[in-house]
């Protein structure tokens, strides 16, 4: 590993703690962005209403607003609205998130067409997950399968009663036992780290901000039309509409970028968690390379694709900013930093060899006939 490698610099535990702290900061930006949009809406409202609410803040009390600056300007009105209404705004946001909590699991499985399976249906799959759970003292999650040749998996749920791991039939057919175990450990880490809750919160917040942005846009159009009919000079109104459109776009864009940034960090942490559980980074590398060749699930909402083990980037991801997952190359390089090695079989993409040596043969997985002592799973 090079000195610039974050895993080499911090160690696995320190690297995970650093990523967790950064994820919390990114998550805290969502309510801040929500309040910012509230302030922008109030600012545009005051500016468009002119002297009635833009000056003379004594009339603001009909909105339950008390002046913060005492100037009676549109900026004062916007700050006063945020100061007076932030508990209500965040309370509505909390209720919105709770509704997402309650209904998300059923919606996700309905969107993917997943069906529940028991031990009698998939004994090998069930035993692999059960062994991983026993090693960490966890409650066994529910298991689902999507009947498709695509190779992918995802974790979902908000508590022990609803936690679930879903895999595709194509994944079960294509991966060997050690590779499947590595993928299941990745998804189980999402449950251990409560990522399934975190991603639901980010998705709901983005939906909420999108709704507010659309509401702002419609309100501005109605107000501009009404004022335009009363006044011959519509230049100022057009300017305010243009500003509102820009603010709306920037707010929604920032919300998306925050959501994607959090998702990418959690995927890297889940990869690290898989290595912790199985002690077999080679198997996870091999699984990543196989899955990357056929991971796209058609007709599935983008919010659900974000939860998948792999979500191929779109053609407009702008250097990864709009990707929900790190690139396969980056994930493999980090796993190489954790001691993993590339398989000897050629792959479609080109990956650099791990620092300090060339990419040698991958040791046998924990369930093969000749396992390597330092790369055994918890029950190998």
Question: Can you offer a commentary on this structure?
Answer:
By secondary structure, the chain is mainly alpha-helical. The protein is built from 11 helices and 4 strands, in the order H-H-H-E-H-E-E-E-H-H-H-H-H-H-H. It has a 4-stranded mixed beta sheet with strand order 1-2-4-3, sandwiched between helices. A hairpin with a 7-residue loop joins strand 3 (153-156) and strand 4. It is elongated. The two termini are 27 Å apart.
Summarize it.
It contains 11 helices and 4 strands.
Indicate the topology.
Blueprint: H1 6-49, H2 51-54, H3 74-112, E1 115-117, H4 123-136, E2 142-146, E3 153-156, E4 164-168, H5 169-174, H6 177-192, H7 195-230, H8 235-278, H9 281-291, H10 302-305, H11 328-337
Parallel strand pairs: 2-4
Antiparallel strand pairs: 1-2, 3-4
Helix pairs in contact: 1-3, 1-7, 1-8, 3-7, 4-6, 6-8, 6-9, 7-8, 9-11
Major sheet details: 4 strands, mixed
Give the ordered list of helices and strands: HHHEHEEEHHHHHHH
Structural class of the helix and strand makeup?
mainly alpha
Range of helix content = 55-70%
Total helices: the number is: 11
Total strands: the figure is 4
Question: Low-confidence runs (pLDDT<50, min 5 residues)?
Answer: 7-11, 51-57, 348-380
Give the rounded overall mean pLDDT: 75
Shape: elongated
Oligomer: single chain
Distance between the termini: 27 Å
Q: Beta fraction of the residues? A: under 5%
- Our Rg estimate from Cα atoms comes to 25 Å
Widest sheet: strand ordering:
1-2-4-3
């Amino acid at each position: 590993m090079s000195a610039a490698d974050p895993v080499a610099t911090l160690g696995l535990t320190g690297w995970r703690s650093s990523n967790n702290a950064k994820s919390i900061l990114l998550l805290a930006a969502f309510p801040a962005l929500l309040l910012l949009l509230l302030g922008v809406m109030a600012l545009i409202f005051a500016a468009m209403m002119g002297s009635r609410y833009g000056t003379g803040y004594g009339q603001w009390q009909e909105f339950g607003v008390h002046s913060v600056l005492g100037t009676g300007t549109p900026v004062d009105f916007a700050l006063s609205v945020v100061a007076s209404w932030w508990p209500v705004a965040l309370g509505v946001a909390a209720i919105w998130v709770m509704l997402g909590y309650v209904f998300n699991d059923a919606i996700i499985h309905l969107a993917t067409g997943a069906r529940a399976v028991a031990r009698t249906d998939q004994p090998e799959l069930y035993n692999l997950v059960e062994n991983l759970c026993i090693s960490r003292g966890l409650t066994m999650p529910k298991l689902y399968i999507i009947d498709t040749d695509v190779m992918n998996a995802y974790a979902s749920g908000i508590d022990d009663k609803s936690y679930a791991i879903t895999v595709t039939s194509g994944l079960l057919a294509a991966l060997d036992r050690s590779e499947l175990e590595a993928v299941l450990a990745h998804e189980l880490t999402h449950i251990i780290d409560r990522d399934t809750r975190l991603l639901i919160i980010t998705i709901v917040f983005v939906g909420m901000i999108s709704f507010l942005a659309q509401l702002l846009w419609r309100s501005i159009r109605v107000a501009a039309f009404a004022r335009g009919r009363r006044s011959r000079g519509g230049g100022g109104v057009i300017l305010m509409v243009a500003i509102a459109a820009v603010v709306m776009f920037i707010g929604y864009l920032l919300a998306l970028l925050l959501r994607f940034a959090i998702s990418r960090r959690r995927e890297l942490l889940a990869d690290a968690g898989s290595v912790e559980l199985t002690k077999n980074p080679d198997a996870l590398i091999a699984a990543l390379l196989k899955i990357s060749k056929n991971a796209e699930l058609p007709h599935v909402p983008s919010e659900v694709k974000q939860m998948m083990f792999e979500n191929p980037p779109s053609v407009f991801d702008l250097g990864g900013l709009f990707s929900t997952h790190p690139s396969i190359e980056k994930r493999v390089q980090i796993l190489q930093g954790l001691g993993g090695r590339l398989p000897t079989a050629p792959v479609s993409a080109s990956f650099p060899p791990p620092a300090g040596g060339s990419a040698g043969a991958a040791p046998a997985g924990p369930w093969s006939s000749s396992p390597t002592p330092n790369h055994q799973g918890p029950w190998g």
